Amino acid sequence: MIEKQVAGELMPSTRLSSITTIPHVPFPFIECQNRILKARQLMKSNSFDALLITSEHNFRYFVDDTSTTPVQTTRPRFLLLLTSGEVIAVVPTGLDDFLRETTWIQDFRTWPGPNPRDEGVSEVTSLLNQLLPENARIGIELGPESRLGVSGGDFLRIAEAIRPRVFEDASEPIMTPLRMIKSDGEIDRIRTVCETVSHVFDNLTQQLYSGMTEREASRLFELECFKRGVDKTTKIDGASGHGGYSRCYGEPTDKVMSGGDVLFIDAGCQFNFYWCDFNRNFSFGEADPHTQDAYRAVWEATEVGISAAQPGIPICNVWTAMSDSLSQLRHRGKSSNIGRMGHSMGLWMPELPSVQQNDNTVLEAGMIVNIEPSMTYPSYFDGSSKLMLHEEVVVITESGAKLLTSRAPRQIPVVK
Questions:
Q1: Helix, strand or coil for residue 299?
Q2: Which of 39, 74, 244, 321 has its CA 20 to 30 A from that of 314?
Q3: 299-336 pLDDT tens trace
Q4: How far out from the chain centre does Cα 282 lie?
Q5: Cα(344)–Cα(178) distance, rounded to whole angstroms?
Q6: pLDDT at 163 over 80
Q7: DSSP 315-348
Q8: Rounded Cα gap, residues 285 and 283, in angstroms
Q9: Which residues form the Creatinase N-terminal domain (predicted)?
Q10: How far apart are CA 177 and CA 296, in angstroms?
């Protein structure tokens, strides 16, 4: 066991080693200004008079906000970008002091929050009516894989109060293309968390043992991530099963693992607000022949996907290359029906584009791509359907895909 109960007190079974903290380097002011400039260029080309940012991740993208609340259910925050002039933040009283001290924003409008009856609605409405013509088109987050950072009711009240001005989706024409191409600073944060978590995965086999539970294995993994400098272990999925696992989602359970079991851990971790997301597989005792074959097939499909991820090609070609690799007749299994074989990520996980058959997004240098093939195969023991999944993270460069994670071993790691 990882912990022992002694005389009514919870005692660690091993002494904790020193904890690593990795410095957080803020984005330079010029990078934030360049993001605003690019947003305004896209606003002009798409005939928007203003951009109203409400999503926490989009707010952070422009402001480099270091407050730690990932989702606000109270005290929403708004950022108004006009085609020129100062960017205006509309935030609850008190938050303006923090943002004035820690960010480049200077122009603030505030209200005393929380105030469920008027959570910034009057301030935002007044500002839009005052600064924008009646025929204004205002961009806001309404498109695929986006969300509003304000309640639906408040959004509808604002939309009604500013008529004939109208809100239209700015996610697809502005925010998605902006955030899809990562800066060197963003890539460095993603590389840092990918390398840190890779190191933990690379050393985890020796720390696992027969008789531990899924939950114990996952908590041990999380502890090592924290000790090595990860800020948050936001999404840790874990699953296991005799002869393979049957799902790749969900909280780890108290199921005890022993010989013949295969453990799947999927790590969604953060460093300085940027994500990594990739998994590793472990066999308790020597893996059965079907699991070994499936592991090898998906590992090879991952190699194919990494090689196919070249700048200038549509991302659906990466999907096709991996699907063809998994469809070879020599394989017992077949490509799974999860729906895609990867995605992008950054301030959120996942982000567009998707490694999907019908996604024609052209890969460009600076994109992050999670290469994530999977297949189903029959259990060696009872013929039931099992799943095998691999995931690695790459950045697209002018010369091709470069790994940000350490590559999973060619043979499934064995827990003695």
A1: helix
A2: 39
A3: 999 999 999 999 999 999 999 999 999 998 788 889 89
A4: 23
A5: 13
A6: yes
A7: HHHHHHHHHHHHT-TT-SSEE--SS-SEEE-SSS
A8: 6
A9: 35-181
A10: 35
**How is residue 164 written in tokens?**
């004939």
What digits encode the pLDDT tens for the residues 257-295? 999 999 999 999 999 999 999 999 999 999 999 999 999
Report the distance separating Cα 103 and Cα 36, nearest Å.
14
Angle at 334 between CA 308 and CA 288, to 5 degrees: 105
Q: What percent of the chain has pLDDT over 90?
A: 90
Do 382 and 243 meet the contact criterion of CB atoms below 8 Å apart? yes
Quote the distance between the C-alpha of residue 346 and its chain's center: 6
Tell me, rounded to whole angstroms, the distance of Cα 279 from its chain centroid: 13
User: Which domains occur in the chain, in start order?
Assistant: 29-180 (3.40.350.10), 184-415 (3.90.230.10)
Residue 207: name the closest of 25, 1, 410 by CA.
1
Q: Is the pTM of this model over 0.90?
A: yes
Instruction: Tell me the residue type at 15.
Output: R
At residue 70 the predicted structure's pLDDT band, cuts being 50, 70 and 90, is low
Buried b (16+ CB within 10 A) or exposed e, 226-257: eebbbbbbeebbbbbbbbbbeebeeebeeeeb
